[in-house]
Amino acid sequence: MAVKKIGGQSLVFESRPCVASWAAVVGPMEGEGPLKSEYDMIMKDSLFDQDSWEKAEQKMMQYSIELALKKADRLPWEMDYLLGGDLLNQIITANFTARVFGAPFLGLYGACSTLAEGMILAGILIDGGYGDSVGAASCSHHDTAERQLRFPTEMGVQRSQTAQWTVTGSGAYLIRSGETGVRMTHATVGKVVDYGVKNASDMGSAMAPAALDTIRAHLEDTGRNAADYDYIITGDLGRRGFDSLKTLMAEEDLPANNLTDCGLHVYGGNQDTHSGASGCGCSAIVMGPRFFKEMRRWPRKKLLFAGTGALLSPLTSFQGESIPGIAHAIAFEWTEGENSK
Asked: What is the reported pLDDT for 339?
């Protein structure tokens, strides 16, 4: 009998796995944004002393994991598992990074929802007694993503105002058992939702219905109200998708006054990113530096993080396919005791 599943899509973490540490390594543009003082490392340029953007992305992910381990006073071989993913074909950034650490590895692809997917799976592994320490990381690089998914930056293609800027950044999180601080209490695994959006320069609108579907499922499964959370945080809807989600929530009489989006926190108003931030690195460099730190500093006790992803590829876009969306949600609570690092 599935005793830890509630409702149709949600899970209860009885042991409440803890986010023991986190680290974020970002590019120079992200290092000029409003969270610049919260990042662990800011690259001086997009190449990070490498000879290709792809190698720079791998180094960025490696450094974020190393820093998260260092903060928790843990060594790489003390990770029971490493979970990770990115935007590139065959998740090469995560694969090559896992080669460095030598930990048992599960490669993930959930587009920009990859961090949420990884953290849910980390919670399942720990709550199920299959490990005590699990690393979860995700990463993106603006220039590698543009080269693969859109147009090489050298072409100078004009971007639509609905387009988001892919984050150059990596965030790593060490999830552990038996500690206090930011604890994972529930998770809701999302369904693929497709409203027929085909504009690859408006991924926020494609993801917003999936965010609504998962948030609604989470509240129904857990018996909670939106007002039970200090923040409901979506992954990277950007301005366009965020406005769409607020409209959809209003149509269902769901309050949205505590709603925010990671894609709105990365860049400042003077940075020309059009609709905000996106990418596997978006929520990864925001959740810890922005929201988990706030849980520690101020009386913020409950967060719901709904990581969103647009499940498109150049192959399906060129064939005229629509863009399916996905969102996975995790409920976090603060417990008193030793602070997370």
From this structure: 43
Q: Looking at residue 180, what is its pLDDT?
A: 81
The pLDDT value recorded for residue 337 is: 53
Distance of CA 255 to the CA centre of its chain: 23
Among 241, 287, 286, 236, CA closest to 263: 236
Task: Please write the tens of the pLDDT for every residue from 297-322.
Answer: 876 689 999 999 999 887 887 888 99
pLDDT at position 278: 87
- Low-confidence stretches of the chain (pLDDT < 50) are 338-341
251-272 pLDDT per residue, tens: 999 988 999 999 999 998 787 7
Instruction: With beta carbons less than 8 A apart as the criterion, state whether 340 and 200 touch.
Output: no
Instruction: Judge whether 153 and 177 are in contact, CB under 8 Å.
Output: no
Domains 5-176 and 183-334 share a fold: yes
* Separation in Å, CA 170 to CA 139, 146, 173, 298: 4, 17, 10, 25
Q: Are 303 and 230 in contact (CB under 8 A)?
A: yes
Nearest residue to 304 via CA among 340, 263, 341, 256: 256
> How far, rounded to the nearest angstrom, does the alpha carbon of residue 285 sit from its chain's CA centroid?
8
Give the contacts of 133 (CB within 8 A, at least 6 positions apart).
20, 74, 78, 79, 80, 174, 175, 176, 177
Cα–Cα distance, 110 to 85 (Å, whole number): 8
Fold topology of 183-334? Peroxisomal Thiolase; Chain A, domain 1 (3.40.47)
Contact 28, 44 (CB under 8 A): yes
φ/ψ (deg, to 5) at 197: -70, 130
Indicate the class that CATH gives domain 5-176. Answer: alpha beta
Q: Please state the domain extents for the chain.
A: 5-176, 183-334
